[in-house]
Hints:
Largest sheet: 7 strands, parallel
Number of helices: 8
Mean pLDDT: 78
Number of domains: 2
Helix content: 25-40%
Shape: globular
Oligomer: single chain
Low-confidence stretches: 240-263
Distance between the termini: 44 Å
Radius of gyration: 20 Å
Strand content: 15-25%
Order of helices and strands: EHEEHEHEHEEHEEHEEHEEH
Structural class: alpha/beta
Amino acid sequence: MIKILILGGTRYLGKAIVNKIKKDKNFKVATLSRSKVISDIKHFVCDRKNSYKLKEIFTNFSPNIILDMINFDGEDSQEILNLYEQRSLSELSHYIMISSFFVYNHFDYKNFSEKKINCEFDQLKIDQYTKHKIDSEINLYSSKLMDITTILRLPFVFSADDYTNRFQRLCEISLKENNMIFKSPFKYSLIRKDDAVEAIIKIFNIKPAGIIDLSNTGYVTNKKLVEVLSNYGNSIKKNQKKEEESFPYFVNKDICLSSQKMTIDLTIFEAVIKEAEKYWLLKS
């Protein structure tokens, strides 16, 4: 039986992953967060910055796989590295770090290597969240832990039940006449929650892959998302048939794993509309 410890597995994407695999007899799943939760699986209460407590949990649970959804800065990576080097993770065979697509607002994706991050970026122009994620990755690159690591650069995860209400808010804003706030050129790579769950579970069943980049084939802007949702929302109001659209730059949702790809069926346009339909149905 493979023991999986999910750091930050109690809400939204993490919770969905747990619900999907907890009945799989091949896995024994546990979660870790700072808060107590009611759960039918093993849950550890721990601030990940508390190295002593983290070491105790790692030693007692002895995970084979760690899915780290709350590695937010270089310090978080370094703590895992230290405990690995101290042999507190003697049974660990796969460390999976969830990174971010946000780098694409600072790097041209065509020139962005899947093997490493170009450190010559303008430190003054980059936002702190992205800089911290880059620091997390860089710490792993030159370590022994990297030999058993998969860094998953995950796109913006959206769904009708997003607990942050970001997608729902976008649906609402798109039907307002004055939505200039969302007409910025900020770029998103997108993936549905269900598709992200499917992708991560596939990674549990492969060997450590270095970097898997779900965001390297393009983007869509805030402005275009608002246009798509606005047209869809208005078509509901008027009970008219939806017009077909395509994004100005099409976004593929492929997992880049060496030269092979595990493809997800829906296009981004289809996926956005599917989640929008769910939201309006839930709302009504």
